[in-house]
Amino acid sequence: MKEDCIFCKIIKGDIPSFTIYEDKLFKVILDRFPAAPGHALIIPKEHYKDIFELPEEVAQALYPLAKEMATRIKLAVDAEGMNIVQNNGEVAGQSVYHFHLHLVPRKAGDGITLNKSANSATTLEELEAVLKCIQAVK
């Protein structure tokens, strides 16, 4: 736990939250400033800055929980879809440096713009070069 982390304070109970679910690894809460009704956060109980610090066992438990919570929220708010979003680093939009996964229920015409394409043309050669760079990292 980090003393200056808002999510650690929520996990400890120092800051109240609207808890949807809790187990030994995670707490799932409604986002205090939701993009849509039902917007929730899955927060590990231990402090990990981002996905790069997340232990394998926590990562493995995350998506089964995300699926369960997304399904429940989708039904509860009669959503047509769901964005599952996780940001790592300031340039990627991370504003709280405690790993968390957003579940954002979506409805047609809701006006939410979370995932915009860059709309830039990429050549097959550029894709091949990036692929080779990624494959070279072990």
UniProtKB/TrEMBL annotation:
PROSITE patterns named among the record's database cross-references = HIT_1 (PS00892), HIT_2 (PS51084)
**Alphabetized GO MF terms:** catalytic activity
Q: Which Gene3D superfamilies match?
A: HIT-like
Q: Which GO terms describe its biological process?
A: nucleotide metabolic process
Q: Which residues form the HIT domain?
A: 6-113
Q: Which Pfam families match?
A: HIT
Q: Which InterPro entries match?
A: HINT, Histidine_triad_CS, Histidine_triad_HIT, HIT-like, HIT-like_sf
Signal peptide residues are none
Q: Where is the active site?
A: H100 (tele-amp-histidine intermediate)
Domain of life where this protein originates: Bacteria
Motif Histidine triad motif: positions: 98-102
- Which PANTHER family does the entry link to? ADENOSINE 5'-MONOPHOSPHORAMIDASE HNT1, HIT FAMILY PROTEIN 1
Q: Which protein are we looking at?
A: Histidine triad (HIT) protein
The species this protein was found in? Cellulosilyticum lentocellum (strain ATCC 49066 / DSM 5427 / NCIMB 11756 / RHM5)
